[in-house]
Description:
With 341 residues, the protein is α/β, with parallel strands linked by helices. The protein folds into 2 domains: 3-103, Orthogonal Bundle (Arc Repressor Mutant, subunit A), CATH 1.10.10; 144-335, Rossmann fold (3-Layer(aba) Sandwich), CATH 3.40.50. Helices cover 46% and strands 16% of the residues. The strands form 2 sheets. A 7-stranded mixed beta sheet has the order 6-5-4-7-8-10-9, sandwiched between helices. Helix 2 (22-32) packs across helix 5 (57-69), helix 10 packs across helix 11 (144-168) and helix 11 packs parallel to helix 12. Residues 1-8 have low confidence and may be disordered. Residues 137, 154, 158, 181-183, 187, 203-205, 229-231, 244-246, 249 line the site of S-adenosylmethionine. The site of S-adenosylmethionine has 17 residues, from helix 11 and strand 5.
Amino acid sequence: MTSAAVPSDRGERTLRELSDLITPMAIRVAVTLRIPQRISATAATAAELAADTNSDTDVLERVLAHLAGAGVLTRDENGRFGLTSLGTQLLIDDGRPEFLDLTTVVGRAELSFVHLLDVVRSGDVVAYAARYGTSFWADLGEEPSSAVQFDQVMADGMKKRVDEIAVAYDWAALGRVVDVGGGNGTLLVGLLRAHPTLRGTLLDRDAGPATRALDEAGLSDRATALSGSFLEPLPPGAGGYVLSRVQSDWSDADVRIILGHCADAAGAHGRVLVIDEFTADEGADTDTETDLRMLMYYGGKERTLEQARELAASVGLTPRSIRRAADWTIMELGASGPARR
Ligand SMILES: C[S@@+](CC[C@H](N)C(=O)[O-])C[C@H]1O[C@@H](n2cnc3c(N)ncnc32)[C@H](O)[C@@H]1O
């Protein structure tokens, strides 16, 4: 073997770290058991932590020992575990350590990555369904606390941008908007607050959270929420149909169905407003992590603006304007003639 073919130490370590499932799972178990919080002020032994977390001392000790070796925990001569500076990142909210908690909606969905090979081979197996025997959305419907967590994650991202979305487009000119898959109503509430003459309807799997949000915001006289599916025809006649961050959750075939229902309901004069953080143009760096998450959780994908435009064209919708709102894009679509569905 020539020296050039001998992997460097650094290269070898990096490859092992990149392909290792042990450390990520050990970190996730520690987060799920709230080990970082338990040892943030005072180091503790595996026996103490096992008693606190109703766990097996021997097994927990072995997992924590691995994390000490990986540089996440410290271990003193009395077998007490503490946090390294790397480990303290597990306490910082901004890093969203709760996503590592295996009992949260995201932590649970991440485990579907063990089915990646099946997805690669088949092209259409949805990993989440392969793991849990049901779709991500059906599962949310079964577990109200997961649905609340999911809505909260979505609402956190929306709250940062809703003011810019509200001024980036003349929403009032639409008269009435239907927020299709509008979640817990964060966007609709923001639009209605900014445009006092605008009226709204929100449609999602469960109208409960949005109904409460509209009520709390004192907007129930101008908007209602409906439980229903955008895979079925939508209530017609509104000036605008908003699809915010919905398309990434679905395959091209399903997006055509959803966009088609929006186009039918909007008719010749209504508008369809697609709001998304589109990925960079083909060939440029894309957020491959998010793209693969969309694939595994839902059978969806991240798309470029051009790909979204092509899908819209396939159901007879053509762009009327494209605006930026914070780091997201609002693509305004209108009927372009007979649909090719
Ligand atoms: C990624 S979230 C986006 C939420 C919101 N539009 C936003 O931008 O924050 C996707 C939404 O689609 C909803 N959804 C999923 N399947 C649906 C269906 N078949 N019919 C209606 N809504 C659905 C989910 O409940 C969720 O609220």
